[in-house]
Structure formats: C-alpha cells, structure tokens
Amino acid sequence: MNTRDAASPTILIVEDEASLQTLLRYNLEKEGYRVTEAGDGEEALTLVAERKPDLILLDWMLPSLSGIEVCRQLRRKPATRELPIIMLTARGEEGDKIRGLNTGADDYLTKPFSLPELLARVRALLRRAQPVQQKGVITWGDIAMDLAAHRVTRAERPIHLGPTEFRLLQFFIQHPGTVFSREELLDAVWGPDIYVEPRTVDVHIRRLRKALNCDTESDIIRTVRAAGYSLDAESAA
Ligand code: CA
User: Fold this and answer.
1) How far apart are CA 227 and CA 229, in angstroms?
2) CA of 92 to the centre of ligand 1 (A)
3) Where are the domains of the chain?
4) What pLDDT digit, counting tens, does each position of 142-199 carry?
5) From the CA of 82, how far away is ligand 1's center (Å)?
6) Do the domains 137-236 and 10-129 match in fold?
7) pLDDT for 204-227, tens place per residue?
8) Residue 90 in contact with residue 20, Cβ under 8 Å?
9) Distance from the CA of 65 to the center of ligand 1, in angstroms?
10) Ligand 1 centre and the CA of 1: distance in Å?
C-alpha cells in the first residue's frame, strides 16, 4: 500500500552508511513519508537549497562536511533556520559532545537506536514544527493557503495569485514577523541559482500586496526601510 502523496512530509536522510540509509528509507516510506537521500554534507546542502524538506535526519560523522557544520550552515540562513533536524550520533560520548556544542539540532539519537523510537521522534518533531498546517492548508490571520490545490482566500474570499506571489506568501506565512532582505527572499523563493535582480522582488511584493489588499484597508506586508519586508503580525491580529 502506498499512501504517499504531495501532502506527505518529505524527510531528507543524510547518512554515509549505505545499510543504515536503506533501513531508514524503507521504514520511513512504510510510514507514508517521502524520502530523499544524501551521502555527504555538501550533497545535503545542495538538496536542501533545491527543495526544502520538512525534516532532516542528519548523521554526525560524514565525509567532507560534518553533520555539525551542515546544521550550523542551515541555521545561519533565514529560509532554513527553523528546519527540524534530528542528529544521529555513533556513540554515547559523541551524543554528549554534540549536546555541549549547541549546534542547533532539535533532537539527538544515539546509534544503535530503535526504529519505533526514531519514528516517534520524527512524528513529534513534525507535529511541533507545523502547528497551523492541517491537510495541506496553512493559515495566518484571515488568510488560508491550500498548498495542494494552490488556492488562497482572505476572509473567505478567493485571492488570485501568480506562482511567484504564491510562493512569496507561503514563505512569509511560514516565517511571520521575520524581516527578510531582497537577497534572502530571492534565495528562498526563487532559489539560489536563479539570477534575478533584487528589484524584481519589489515588483512581486507590489503584486502580492495588491492582490491581498483588494478588499481591505489593512496592509499585512511591512516594508522595512533599508532592510526588506516582513509579514506584519500587528495588522492581522
Ligand atoms: Ca557516518
């Protein structure tokens, strides 16, 4: 039985041990998750930049870039600052060391771990990370986004958005109150490998504002002079 669909969470497994990677993939897929895999830290960062997973299982000891370094790099970027990460470590001592290092991982598991334990931690972390997401619908204030059907409503009225405005709004709703520079928005919404001029962001923000505010006075996107834009928590309350 295959219950995976577009709304199933995607889990990125970063593990250089082939047998463990296979075991993890098999069991996560059996639980209905979608799985992507990376064998080292560099590959993991590339995959995350291409398409952000919902959770990462990150081995500590990896060739080239260590799990700790991968974790640090992800925590530095606004788009991945809150990406749920479970660190996998080889021995108890390493686990203790990692806890002391304060790398920003959300949880730790020491090998050998039991699969029911791992699956329970994955479920708990995903639940914690997505408090407003139900059946592929995310809400913020009076705005609801159906991610699967690509439909947006504000105060139950349909809002028509182009694909870029849709991704922009989704990114804002997933990080309310955070100010993003044009460059950060380009990285997160357009992707780091796409070359677009920063002022292109302004054009799409203007379109998004216009679409969202067509029937209401309150502008929910705040322009922060010399810094960028944020979804304003004040005006949606
Ligand atoms: Ca390893």
Assistant:
1) 7
2) 15
3) 10-129, 137-236
4) 889 998 888 999 988 999 999 999 999 999 988 877 788 888 898 888 887 778 888 8
5) 24
6) no
7) 999 999 998 865 566 778 888 777
8) no
9) 11
10) 31
